[in-house]
Write a structure and sequence with these properties.
The complex is a heterodimer of chains A (about 230) and B (about 200).
Chain A: H1 3-26, E1 30-38, E2 49-54, H2 65-78, E3 83-84, H3 86-92, H4 106-112, H5 116-124, E4 127-151, E5 154-175, E6 180-201, H6 208-225
Chain B: H1 2-17, E1 19-23, E2 42-45, H2 48-51, E3 54-59, E4 63-68, H3 70-84, E5 88-91, E6 102-114, H4 116-119, E7 124-136, E8 142-153, H5 161-183, H6 188-197
Parallel strand pairs in B: 1-4, 2-5, 2-6
Antiparallel strand pairs in B: 3-4, 6-7, 7-8
Helix pairs in contact in B: 3-5
Classes of the chains: A alpha/beta (about 230), B alpha/beta (about 200).
């Protein structure tokens, strides 16, 4: 008689434990799609530098500064070419690359470079390529729940939660010397994260932003190097 | 008597707790401005209403806010315009005769801000609306130039409202400087006057 409730209590725990173990083995799933278009071959010379800038025209689609930093760091690690930090570049070019004044297209850049002061400053910094990034990461779905309780005898969390994140970014590479758009790269990563909790919550996170960043950085680097 | 005094003190503290005072003092100067000198002499008339500008708001929903930005406003306008025009000077008496090719008088028409609790977005926003009077010494009439500056900041998790708003206002001032540097001389009535002089 006494074993009935115990069995009823143990069954969901065992089921959740089995599910958590299964997920831990399987890991978080994510998939990335990269779509890259090259409009003209890059003609990089020794000493040419690149700057990665977030396009801040739409408040709801501003790229997270951490994504820009991630692409920056990734390009630095790949040692493709010197990388100028975004804030350093924007400050050095003030007031021409502010959210309200930045050139919206290559034609506007061409007009901006007619300004000798701007062209001179760009040349001083050896900046050859501008990489404009727009996009964001957002949660598209979530389900389940975890509840935690604390009592005299201790506490714990029970439940299961999962959520889907989507990172969608677009990079546009402009060549300052030729005043042309070199390439456009789209990277989209979808991933599901899990949070099983049996006394202690064990988050298994799909790092969609980081995955999209790695995929995009790799493409940017290969487009800047150009054909061998 | 003691209880009544205690209640009054408590009431005063509660009311005082609703007051948030912000004094914007730009910690750093704007970056160096990359513009070409127009070769036109300019004097800027900084009226007390501009350099001592204080935004004051009191409402049951928001409490009381005082935003003193006059000093930062003056610094911003001064730093941008002295790069664009030479010789450059500043005056603070409105009835003094115009001694340069052009006199401009910046005025703050409106200042607004919005917080995440009001908009549902995750960022703080600030707007400053300016009217700039343009008076050439040669008597040509140029209509006022209107410009709105905007700043937006997504604060960190532990950033206080006051701090986030200061940052949004600082960005609005940076935007004001950028628009002043890129749009003022492109403003058609002024651009025509400048072209006629060259």
């Amino acid at each position: 008689m006494a074993s009935g409730p115990l069995v009823n209590f143990a069954a969901p725990i065992l089921r959740a434990g089995g599910l958590a173990a299964g997920l831990a083995i399987m890991g978080c799933n994510s998939n990335t799609v990269v779509d890259a278009h090259s409009f003209m071959p890059a003609q990089t010379r020794a000493g040419d530098a690149v700057v990665v800038i977030g396009r801040k025209s739409d408040p709801l689609k501003d790229p997270d500064p951490s994504f820009i930093e991630c692409v920056n760091n990734s390009l630095l690690e790949q040692q493709t070419m010197p990388v100028v930090k975004e804030q350093k570049f924007v400050d050095a070019m003030y007031p021409w690359f502010e959210p309200s004044t930045a050139p919206p297209d290559v034609g506007s850049l061409s007009k901006l470079l007619d300004n000798q002061a701007v062209a001179g400053r760009m040349s001083d910094m050896s900046v050859r390529y501008l990489v404009w990034i727009r996009g964001d990461t957002e949660r598209v779905d979530e389900s389940g729940g975890v509840s935690c309780t604390v009592g005299l005898g201790g506490g714990g969390c029970f439940g299961f939660k999962s959520w889907d994140d989507e990172a969608r970014y677009e990079a546009s590479i402009w060549d300052i010397t030729t005043e042309q758009r070199v390439s456009r790269i789209d990277a989209q990563t979808n991933g599901t994260s899990y949070l099983p909790a049996i006394i202690v919550p064990v988050p298994m996170l799909a790092r969609v932003r980081e995955t999209a960043c790695a995929a995009m950085s790799e493409q940017i680097a290969s487009h800047l190097v150009g054909p061998p | 008597m003691t209880i009544r005094r205690g209640v009054l003190v408590l009431l005063a503290l509660l009311l005082g707790g609703c007051t948030q005072q912000i004094a914007i003092e730009m910690a750093t100067e704007l970056p160096e401005v990359v513009v070409q000198d127009s070769g036109v002499g300019l004097e800027v008339l900084f009226l007390p209403s501009f350099v001592e500008h204080v935004y004051h708001e009191r409402s049951p929903e928001r409490g009381e806010w005082r935003i003193a930005s006059g000093n930062a406003q003056r610094k911003t306008f001064s730093q941008v315009l002295r790069t664009q025009f030479s010789p450059y000077s500043e005056v603070d008496v409105s009835n003094s005769p115009i001694a340069s090719d052009l006199r401009i008088t910046p005025l703050i028409e409106q200042m607004q801000f919005a917080m995440p609790s009001e908009t549902g977005f995750e960022y703080f926003e600030a707007w400053v609306k300016y009217r700039v009077e343009l008076n050439p010494r040669d008597g040509v009439i140029i209509p006022d130039w209107h410009v709105t500056a905007y700043g937006r900041i997504e604060p960190g998790r532990f950033t206080r409202d006051q701090e986030a708003l200061e940052q949004a206002l600082a960005l609005a001032l940076r935007d004001a400087g950028a628009k002043l540097a890129t749009e003022l001389t492109a403003y058609q009535p002024l651009a025509r006057w400048l072209a006629a002089r060259s």
